[in-house]
Amino acid sequence: MHSPEDALHQARAAYEDHQRTCRQCAVDTVPCAVAKHLLRLYNNARRSLRGPSSAMR
């Protein structure tokens, strides 16, 4: 079973890998839709590690 930390590292690695290999992201300064989605997944994983108490800060 994967820990929340594993999910966070996996989401970050997927986003960074996409940034390195995506032709559209390399040409444009604006991230493509896939990069935005991967970044959203990473941010959600990061928020879940913080817990509900720090979300209100």
From TrEMBL:
<protein>
    <submittedName>
        <fullName>Uncharacterized protein</fullName>
    </submittedName>
</protein>
